[in-house]
Amino acid sequence: MAPSVHLTGRVVRVEPAGHRGVTIVSDVPLSARPGQFVMLWVPRMDEKPFSLVADSPLTLAVVPVGPVTGRLQRLQPGDPLYVRGPLGRGFSLDGKRPLLVAGGSGAAPLAFLASRLAETGREVTVALGARSADELLLVERYQAAGARLWITTEDGSAGERGLVVSVAERLLANGGCDRVYACGPVPMLERVAALCRLYGVPGEASYEAYMRCGIGVCGSCDRGDGLLVCRDGPVFGL
Amino acid sequence: MRDTDLSVELCGIRLRTPFVLAAGVLGTTAALLERVARRGAGAVTAKSCSVRPRRGHPNPTVLPWEGGLINAVGLANPGAAAMVGILADARRRLAPLGVPLIASVFAEEAGGFGEVVRILEEAEPDLYEVNISCPNVAEELGMPFAADPVQAARATAAVRAATRRPVIVKLSPNVADICAVGRAVVDAGADALAAINTLGPGMLIDIRARTPVLANRMGGLSGPAVRPVAVRCVYELSRAVPVPIIGMGGVTTGEDAVEMIMAGATAVGVGSAFYQRGMGALEAMAAEMRAFMQEQGFGCVSEMRGLAHGA
Ligand SMILES: Cc1cc2nc3c(=O)[nH]c(=O)nc-3n(C[C@H](O)[C@H](O)[C@H](O)COP(=O)(O)OP(=O)(O)OC[C@H]3O[C@@H](n4cnc5c(N)ncnc54)[C@H](O)[C@@H]3O)c2cc1C
Ligand SMILES: Cc1cc2nc3c(=O)[nH]c(=O)nc-3n(C[C@H](O)[C@H](O)[C@H](O)COP(=O)(O)O)c2cc1C
Ligand code: FES
After folding, report:
1. Ligand found nearest the CA of A234
2. Which fold has domain A98-206?
3. ipTM confidence
4. A7-87, which class in CATH?
5. Which residue among B27, B64, B211 sits closest to A219, beta carbon to beta carbon?
6. Diameter of chain A measured on Cα atoms
C-alpha cells in the first residue's frame, strides 16, 4: 500500500469566485457524491474541510476567512494539492423537480448537485443568494448546468433585493418542487426547514462544523444533537 | 442452550456489556456520550480533561493509515469548569440507561491531578480514569507520568486523596516494564487499571510533500496494529496486580474482545473501531461475542477471564 494518507495532484486552473474567492480546478481524480467533502491539507500549516464543486477532476470553491482559506487564494497552476476523501454522506439524488437553495459559500456543494441532477435529465431550479454581488459564487456553473436560476442579494447589487429564503418560499408556494436541497448559514437552513414543513416537501441540507478528524472519531463536529457532521452528515434531512 | 450474559462487574459497578468507550474517542459532548451508551456501551469515558482549557495541536491531528489510526489531538479540552457541565448533563442522560460515566483527567504536574478531580467532583461521575500516559504532548508536558513508577504513583495518590469514587489509572505501553508502573499505582490506591493508551509515538511522512503529515509530526498509534502489544500488556498486568483491568488497544470485533478477556481483562475499551465500524461498532461486537460464547458454551463473560493463563 502506498505510504500516503492523502491523495496528491496539482492545481490546473484557478478562477475567481466572486470578488474575493477562487475556484480551484485540479487534476486529482475522485469519485464522489454531491455533498461529500474532502479534508484539504496544506503541509506545515493545517487541514480543513471543503465541499466538492465537482469530483473528477476535483474542484473546490474557497472563500477567504482565515489562514488556510487565505493561503488557498494564492494557489497557482502547477502547485501541489493534498486531499483526504471523499468523506461524509452526500445528497440523495431523489428529487425529480428539485429546488436548490444556496446561501454564500453554500453554493459550492449545490453546484455539484445541480450538474449531477441535470446530467440525469432533472429540471433544476436554484435560488442563489449572497450579501452582495461580489459574494455570489459559481453563477456560471449553475448556468452551464442549465438550471433555472433565481439570484438574490441582500443589498440588491445583483438580482432581486432580499433574502434567498423569500425566493425559495415563492417557488415553493408556486408548487412543482418535490424536494428541497439547501446549504448555507444555520439560520437560513432553519428557515428552509420551516418552509419544507409548511409546504410538505422533503428537504436535505448540508451543515458545517469545526472538524478535526473528518472520519467520525474525535467528536469535534457534534451538530449539537450527537450527530457527527463529518460522518452522519454533512448532509442531513431537514 | 444457556442464556449468554454479557454483563460484567467493574469496581462494584455493573456494566451491561463489557464494552467501555475509550477516552478521547467521541466523548466530547453529553449527546455523543449518550448516543454511544444507547448503542451498546457498558460504560462511557469522557474526553480527558485538565484544569485549564487546551486548544490542542493544529490539524492534521487524527489520520487513518493501513494499520489503524495515528493521532496527536494534543489533549484538546474545554477545561475542568466547562467539563463539569458536560459530565453533569451526561450523567442525567445516562442514568436511565444504567450506563456509568467515567471522567478522564490529566495534569501538567502530579499535584494538578488532584485539583482537576476536586473540580469535577461536583458533576459526580461514577468513576475516574487517570490519564498518565498520553504520548502526544511530551514536548509540552515532559515525559508522561506513566514512564516512571514514582511519578505515576504520585499522580495516582493525588487523585486518591481527592475522591472516594473508584479510580482507574491508564497505563502506557511505551515503557520498559509496564508491571512496575502497574504495581506502583495500585500501591498508591488505584482500584483498577486501563491498558493501553496509544503506542509510540509514531510518524508518517508524506513523501511528495516531504514532511511529516501530523502537524505535531508524531502521534500515538491505535487500532489493529497495536492489538498484540495491548494483549501482551494486559496479560502481564493481570499476573502482576490484583485489580481489574480494562483492556484496550485495537479491539475491533467481538472475538478481539474475547481475546482481551482471556488475557485477563475484566472489561474491554473500544476507540478506533468506531472508525472502521461506525456507530454500530459495539452492537456488532456484542453480537459477535455472544455468538462465540454460544459456540464455545460460555454463559457469562467472567467464565472466560484469564483463560489464556492456563489452570
Ligand atoms: C463540510 C464542510 C464543507 C465546507 N465547504 C467549504 C467550501 O466549499 N468552501 C469554503 O470556502 N469553505 C468551506 N467550508 C468552511 C471551511 O472549512 C472554513 O472556512 C475553513 O476551515 C477556514 O479555515 P481558515 O484557516 O481559513 O480560517 P479559520 O481561522 O479556521 O477561521 C476563520 C473564521 O471563520 C470561522 N469559521 C471557520 N470554520 C467555519 C465554519 N465551518 N463555519 C462557520 N465559521 C467558520 C472561524 O470561527 C473564524 O472566525 C466547509 C466546512 C465544512 C465543515
Ligand atoms: C483520536 C484519539 C484520541 C484519544 N484521546 C485520548 C485521551 O484524551 N485520553 C486518553 O486517555 N486516551 C486517549 N486516546 C487513546 C484511547 O483511549 C485508547 O487508549 C487507544 O486508542 C487504544 O485503543 P483503540 O485501539 O481501541 O483506539 C485517544 C485515541 C484516539 C484514537
Ligand atoms: S471531525 Fe472528528 S468526529 Fe467529526
Report:
1. 1
2. Rossmann fold (3.40.50)
3. 0.93
4. mainly beta
5. B27
6. 55
